[in-house]
Structure formats: C-alpha cells, structure tokens
Amino acid sequence: MQSDCSKQDLSNFICSLGFKDFSLDLINTAFTHSSYTKEHDESYLKCYERLEFLGDAVLKLAVTDYLYNTYPDSNEGDLTKIRSIIVSDEILYQIARKLEIERFIKVSKAEEKCGGKKLESIQACVMEAMFGALYLSSDRTLLNNFIVDNLKEFINDISNNKTVYNAKAVLQEYTQGLSKELPVYTVVKETGAAHNKTFFVQVSYNGNLLAEADGKTKKQAEQQAAYTACKKLGIIKDTINHE
Fold this sequence. Notes:
Layout: H1 7-16, H2 24-30, H3 34-39, H4 49-70, H5 76-86, H6 89-99, H7 109-113, H8 120-137, H9 140-160, H10 162-165, H11 167-178, E1 184-191, E2 198-205, E3 208-215, H12 218-233
Antiparallel strand pairs: 1-2, 2-3
Helix pairs in contact: 2-8, 4-5, 4-8, 4-9, 5-9, 6-8, 11-12
C-alpha cells in the first residue's frame, strides 16, 4: 500500500539503481501525482509534471546520442522512427514494471482505488520525472548510462525488427489503398492480475477478421496482430521471432 513506502524506502530504491548523490525532495516530487497534491492541498510544484517535462528532454537526448553513435550508417528518418518508439509510454512502462516503481508512486485515495498507479501513462510519466530529478541533482553521466542500459535491448530489437513496430502503419496504408475503411482493433479478452495482464486483440478490416494476437499491453497486442495480418496478406515478407 501507498502508506507503507516512506521517503527512506524511496531513497533506498534510488540507491539500488546505482545513484548515491541526489536530492530526495526532488525524487519524492518525481513520484507524486497531481491528484495527491490536490488531495493534500499542496502546491502544484510538488507534483511530477514539471520534472516530467525536463525528463522527457533528458531521455530524448540520451537516446539520440546513443542512436547517432551506434548506427552511423542510418539516415535521419530511420533514427527518428526508432527514437519515437523508444521514448514512447509503452516502452517506458515496460521499464517501470521491471523496476517495480508502482509501490513508490503517490496518488490520491480515489486515484489509487481506481488503479491509477498501475496505468501505463502515469508510470511512464514518473519515469520521465525521475530522469528529470536525477538530471538536476545527480551525476549526469551516470544517469545517461542508466537510461541507455535500460533501453539498449529495446533499441536493438526495434532496429532489427522494424516491421513489427511499423506494422500498424503498414497495414493502415495498405487498407487505405483499397478503400477509405481503416483496420479496427478490438480487445476480445484480458487475463491475469491487474499488475500483470495479458491482452488479446483482434484486427478486422471491412468486417472481416484479419488476425489476432496477445501482448502485455494493448498497444503491443495491436502491433503483433497487425504484423500477423500483414504477413497473411503478403504485405511484408520477413520472418522474425518477436514476443
């Protein structure tokens, strides 16, 4: 529960990530949702939103620098596509879940009751805010390395498997070439506990089922369903192993 996590618990958590010198006040702010500050009649400046704004820029710079130096033969367009996926809420949420940051996030009682701390959007924002707080108060080289180390696996996967991540756009372009109808994605089933769900998605076009797939997030399931549909339709040819 939220009340079980003290500032000391949060400090210990940040230390466990490899950071020793940082502002605990800034870190605490980074983990505080606006619903909490409103509930406790605290200043807006005590919620994570300003730090999120800064952390978003810190994240993009770290990823941009890594991509620029790691893929010297890639053009600007390809690098931009990879970066846009890497800095998305979906990828940040996967990192947030791996780090188990949910236990440290402070939200209002009402927000917690409706599962706000589990939301992809909130956890992704907290990750960015944490980057912002560490940028202001800790070793910036260490922070840059931390960001890259946690995202490197995703970057390599996206670079090697662009077709999966671009499949929704590819499928939409294909259907628009046939008619004005767009692919329709429908969540047909959800399984697992709230913090570890699996989503089952079907993609249809013009009333016809094209494919179905599952994933740990709705977006991931939609991407995989689109990729499967593209394969069946013969739009893309490559074969990969992607979870």
